[in-house]
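Q: What structure does this chain adopt?
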Amino acid sequence: MATLLYRLGRASLRRRRLVVAVWLVVLVGLGLAAATLRGPTASNFTMPGTESQRALDLLADRFPAASGATGTIAVKAPQEGQLLSPEGQAVVKEVTQEAATLPGVVGAVDPYQVKALSPDGRYALIQVQFAGRADEVTDAQRTAYEEVGARAEQQGWQIAPGGEVLNGEPEVGSTEALGVLVAAIVLIITFGSLVAAGMTMLNALIGVAVGMAGLFALSGAVELTSTAPILALMLGLAVGIDYSLFITSRHRQNLLDGQEPEEAVGRAVGTAGSAVVFAGATVVIALAGLAVVNIPFLTVMGLAAAGTVSVAVLVAITLAPALLGFAGRKVLPRRLRDAAPAETAPAAEDRSGFGFRWARWVTRLRIPVILVGLLGLGLLALPAQDMRLALPDASAAAEGTPARVSNDLIQEGFGPGFTGRLAVVVTADSPQATQAAVPQVTALIQKTDGVLAVAPPQLDPSGRTALLGVIPKTGPTDAATETLVHDIRDQVGGIQNADVLLTGVTAIGIDVSEKLSDALPVYLLLVVGLSVLLLMLVFRSILVPVKAALGFLLTVAATFGITVAVFQQGHLADLVGLDTPAPLVSFLPILLIGILFGLAMDYEVFLVSRMREDFVHGDSAQQATINGMGHGARVVTAAALIMISVFGGFVFLEDPIIKSMGFALAIGVAIDAFVVRMTIVPAVMSLLNNAAWWLPRWLNRALPNVDVEGEGLRAHLAEREPANV
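A:
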């Protein structure tokens, strides 16, 4: 592989104008396709095969008027008892009528007819039924809904529209641009050259633009969840900058060693590019592997992010060499650009840098370093044992947003259960069977612990399907509500001559969370097994892959622990702009495992491949460990800081899902790069000594040689130019 990439790098530099032109044509073409073919993103999380999803499908078929998105308008009168006065009733009826005539609305329920009034006569709830799903509601319809009751508010009433209809697409603003700015500063400091930093950033931005344009072009044919493009952007930016950084760093070193630009870029792509391809492949495989858990929206998210990573790899090994060809020696610091090759080529390797000093210190104190590292990460992981998963509801939204204001007003007037209503669908072959089953179902639900009230049934035009509203005593993400959902299903499971299904936004969230929790151990086992196999191919060792996999598990555990402590338990929540602690979003753990796996293998390859290279060429295992850290520490540090900056930029978005994803990824990269890969790994490698590189002969013969380290390339160069090698 290294030899093939070496030739690709040289060819890209020689034909750099053609390469740049091709990528620009691809970018413009996909941009036009995205502009014309882009479809809406979905804010709902469907789960085929679950009871809640079967109920929704049934409603869409038999009771379409009740299958669309719902809204709840909370009304608060200026004084207690005012809702019962003729003037108060007139105000509420006016708001109800205004809501019923909104575009896209099927109807609005008069709270006086269904007794949706608080005991003190100050609060009322107006249920609004939309024709389409939440992701089908247009921005104009959503805006009109949010502006309902303007006249009543002028009279001192508080009108707060809320409900699932307000679940819109998260907006990407200026905060994540700060992460890109920090990444640019890190590049400038690392390279000491504005040209090198700017070219690396430009290369990554082109890759991200191509990947995102392609993703949006496909969104017209494939339903994307609202978080999928954000994840793709987040990950595409981070790996795009890192991959270009690795190749540019190696190219600069080759120039300083006296090589001509074409040869320097060829060797950079052949060596660092090999590691980039391997690292990118691991990320893509891990993300694409999300399809194994058979959850459609998660599969789409994984494939979307995998697509942007694939583009980032292609851009790094083709466009980066072309841009390096245009830059020439300007990628070097100004003081070294005009120096002759003989002046820049070092007479002897400088081993006084921080990376070498750190490696010598870590290997000398390897036992204490390992113990302190394990103890520290273990303590950080402790909160993970209390982790709870759920789909976030409006109570976790940012304070001041319409959804949060409505949610708080409903809880204030009626209690938390009214924000997480459940829906029970009763259906039979005949209207008589349905009418006979409804009283039985109602009675069974009413005697279930945790139920506050059961609303009267609504019948479809045929009379064969009834819809019952169930109000729990606890909120949507409360553990007691999850227990209640299971208890209701157990209670009504024995009804004869009718099918009874429990659904609603709250039930869907519980079903999604349970499905993901069940899939998490399987996916983790898949990822860990994959890491051992892939690293065994690269390093021709058994203990190195096992050590890498255990380090990855430490990273994941500590990251989960810190994320739970901040987002679920609320410790230091103000630092990340979190208003209300809540359970973690259901798909965060499994998504985090997939992404961190690829990034962990990224750093593992860049550090340990140099250790193996020096060991194979005659250095002792101890010296090889020090050399690998000494040569790789600066680049890995810069790469980690860049990823942390990019991911951290998403922490300051209001959307709680994106906020938690950005935080977890930033913390995970920091722990894996600085604690695990740059501290615990060299300590363990030093402790293992020669045993680290042991591999049975039969296994060595059986494993294919992927040549990530460039052994084949060195042999090729030695045959071509024996005098220079």
